[in-house]
TrEMBL record:
EC numbers on record: 1.1.1.23
PROSITE patterns named among the record's database cross-references: HISOL_DEHYDROGENASE
Pathway(s) it belongs to: Amino-acid biosynthesis; L-histidine biosynthesis; L-histidine from 5-phospho-alpha-D-ribose 1-diphosphate: step 9/9
Record gene name: hisD
Reported cofactor(s): Zn(2+)
UniProt similarity note: Belongs to the histidinol dehydrogenase family.
Organism: Dorea ammoniilytica
Catalytic-site annotation from UniProt: 327-328
Alphabetical list of InterPro entries matching this protein: Ald_DH/histidinol_DH, Histidinol_DH_CS, Histidinol_DH_monofunct, Hstdl_DH
HAMAP family: HisD (MF_01024)
Ligand binding (NAD(+)): 129, 191, 214
Superkingdom field: Bacteria
Protein name: Histidinol dehydrogenase
Residues engaged in binding substrate: 237, 259, 262, 328, 361, 415, 420
Function noted in UniProt: Catalyzes the sequential NAD-dependent oxidations of L-histidinol to L-histidinaldehyde and then to L-histidine.
Amino acid sequence: MRIQHLDSSTKKNLLEDLLQRSPSSYGQYEQAVAEILNNVKIEKDKALFAYTEQFDHAHIDASNVRVTMEEIQAAYEEVGEELLRVIRGSLESIKSYHEKQRQFSWFDSKPDGTILGQKVTALQRVGVYVPGGKAAYPSSVLMNIVPARVAGVDEIIMVTPPGADGRVNANTLVAACEAGATAIYKVGGAQAIGALAYGTESIPKVDKIVGPGNIYVALAKKAVYGHVSIDAIAGPSEIMVVADETANPRYVAADLLSQAEHDEMASAILVTTSEKLAREVSDQIDGFLKELSRADIIQKSLDNYGYILIADTMDEVIDTANEIASEHLEIMTKNPYDTMTRIRNAGAIFIGEYASEPLGDYYAGPNHVLPTNGTAKFFSPLSVDDFIKKSSIIGYSREALERVHKDIEAFAEAEHLTAHANSIKVRFEENR
C-alpha cells in the first residue's frame, strides 16, 4: 500500500483522485439510462418485464412480479435459525436507535390569538431499492426499511432483481418481511427506478426512492429526482482511519481492508502522525492479503484508491479528514473523544479501537446508508427525517392581524405586489 508524506500537493491530488469515483463522472451511461426510463414511463409493465428478461434473464409478468406469502414462507425455511436470530437482533438495535430520531408536531399559541406551529407528517408511500445477485445484503434491507417504518410511512414498496429462476434471495426476503415491507417486487436496475418513479400497471408510484445500487441505478435516481424525492446518489464505499502512535497496526489494517473488499472503486485511507505505524500497517495489510477470500478485489482497490498518509501534526491530520469528508471515519488516537470534537465532516464516526466499521454496518443501530464522495460536508446519514415532511401552521385572530396589517401592506407595496397588499387591506376596510 502506497505511503506518502502529506503536503498540499498530496492532498490536492488525492481529492481529485477520489472525486473521479463519483457517479456524476459517468456521463456515458446517462443516455442508456434515459432511454430505459422513458420506455418504462410510456410502456409501463411491458417495458419493465422486457428489460427484466433482457438484463436478469428472468421471465417476469403481471402474474408473478409480486413476491407471494408462499415465497416468503419458503425463504424462512431456507434461512437458518442462527441468521434469523442475528437479523432480529440487528433489527432491534436499528429500531431502538432510530426511534430516538422521531419528531413531533408542535403548536405555539399566544393570548392575542396567534397560533404558529409545525405539522410533521410521514410520507405515504416510499420505494426501497435492494441490489440482487451476489450483492444481496440483508443488512441494507433493514437499514432502509426500519427508519421508514419508525417514521410511520403507510406503504413501503421494495424492489429487487430476481435470479434467472425468477426467485429473490432468501436472506433478502426474510429481512424485508422482518423489517416491515408492505410489498416486494421482482424487478431491478434502472427499470425498477422508473417503475417506482412513474408507476406501472403492477407497481404503484412512490413519493421517495431510497437504497443503493450500481451506476445505472444511481444515474436513474438522479434522473427521476423531481418526479419523486431520493435519498442521495451513492458512490463507492470509503473508509478513513485517523491514528497516532498509540494505535494498534493490526486493527487499523484489518479495518482498512473491510471497506476495500467492497469493490475495486472503494477507497481506504490512513492518515497518521506516526511513520512507524504507517510501516507496520502496510506490513499487516500484506499479511492479510494472503488470507482473505476477496484479495484480488482488495488489491485492485488499494492500488487504485488506497493511501497511507504521514502528517507532521495532528492538526494536519484533522484538516485532511475534514477536507475529504469520508463516509466512514475511525479515530484511533490517545484521546479519541477529543479528536472527535474537532471532526466537522464525516458520515459516521467510530471512536476507539473496538468501534470497528463493521459494527456500524451490521449491529450498533445507527444507519449505514451514508454520504460518500465528500458529500458528508452537507449530507447526513439516512434517518427518520428522510421519511417525513413538515408543514407550517399559521393561525391569526382579527386582533392579532390588526396589530401588524399596515406593516404587511407596506412590505407588499414595497415589492410592487399590490394584490398581496389588497388581500390584507380588505379585512380592515371599515377602519379606513
